[in-house]
Amino acid sequence: MVHIEKISKIDKKEVLAILQSFWGDSKIVIHNEIFDVMSLDGIKAVDNNQLSGICHYRISDKECEILTLASLNPGQGIGSALLKEVEWFALNAGCHLICLTTTNDNLNALGFYQKHGYQLTALYPKQVYISRQLKPEIPEIGYHGIPIRDELRLEKKLK
User: Does domain 2-157 match CATH 3.10.580.10?
Assistant: First the structure.
């Protein structure tokens, strides 16, 4: 049974390993801004006493932005459990909107979020070229052999 809890300092090493495997390190670039994810609020999914997923977010001006969401065991409901929990946090913090940004190659994420009620609201063509100036390690080719070029914003209104 998966349960969700806040990420604590004890989790630092494991969380960093997950961030490195998904994003290369703890720094991510979204909309020309560098985030050191280790300094942000986050939640973790624990399954059979094993860390099985993470999600980092920030809340500002009644809006919650998801900055990372990673499941170590896709298809097991871990991402959905993390998403449900961060939406609950956002709602209880008075947020009216939850959003995130992904890249054009991340077809699995696009499908996952749309399945959970998120809508595409913006396309930022060639934004990743600009992001590479801040983080040159961003690969040229992403999932499914698709060149990584654009950022896409998805949003969901909270009730």
Answer: no
Structure tokens at 96: 């009216």
Domain chopping of the chain, boundaries: 2-157
Report the distance separating Cα 53 and Cα 7, nearest Å.
Answer: 11
Neighbours of 71 (CB within 10 A): 24
Q: List pLDDT tens digits, range 29-63.
A: 998 889 999 999 899 999 888 999 999 999 999 99
d(CA 123, CA 151): 6
Distance CA 72, CA 22 (A): 10
The residues of the chain scoring below 70 in pLDDT are none
Evaluated on CA atoms 73, 115, 157, 120, the torsion sign reads positive
Question: Rounded to two decimals, what is the model's pTM?
Answer: 0.93
pLDDT of residue 150: 97
Task: Evaluate whether 26 touches 68 at the Cβ level (below 8 Å).
Answer: no
Rounded to whole angstroms, the Cα distance separating 27 from 125 reads 22
Residue in the structure block whose two tokens are 């609201």: 121
Distances 154 to 50, 147, 150 between C-alpha atoms, Å: 30, 20, 13
